[in-house]
């Protein structure tokens, strides 16, 4: 039986792709204004409704912001991991995947990121990693600061791996698995244990030792999983849901 023909891409999506291609071709950077609507209508040969749908889509993806009023219009932005986080969360929710899915992904991915970071992280980023470590230690009594620095530490290693995909994946995974949002509490003794683990990871990366870096990160993630499974098993088994 013959397969039905593939549905052609929606015009608005094709225009959105062309707008992005033109941003790259022109070398636009964050803060640059794109051409006004009347120019874009002629350039892309589409109606106003189609163009605005394209621009709204790009705004949702974080590629542009739409500024109202005179002198406004589309302005180039730097996309971040928020759109990927939302997409992954919705995919997981419709699959009825539990939060344990995220911890398993981190267990597999983050040791490799630490290994690469030991080989590729710049001295400047290594200093930022040390600053995160020190800030966490100086604020162990403050869980909010602890959570911020915990995420920052892992983000820096992911981006320091030199693999852009890893950076955005960890941004998204940590965005989904935010301990305070899903009910995993960190008493001060656990915060101190996390800081000690971060110190071991930092020292291994600073020593440019790939094996030790991967091992330290693997041990850290496994300790987190054991703690969560012992104290908060219902949380790990709860389904991932999209929420603010």
TrEMBL record:
Keywords for this entry? Coiled coil, DNA-binding, Transcription, Transcription regulation
Q: Does the keyword Transcription apply?
A: yes
Molecular-function GO term, any one: DNA-binding transcription factor activity
Q: Name the InterPro entries on file.
A: GntR_C, TF_FadR/GntR_C, Tscrpt_reg_HTH_GntR, WH-like_DNA-bd_sf, WH_DNA-bd_sf
Q: Which residue numbers delimit the HTH gntR-type domain?
A: 9-79
Coiled-coil regions listed in the entry: 123-150
The domain of life for this entry's organism is: Bacteria
Fetch the PROSITE patterns from UniProt.
Answer: HTH_GNTR
This chain's protein is named: GntR family transcriptional regulator
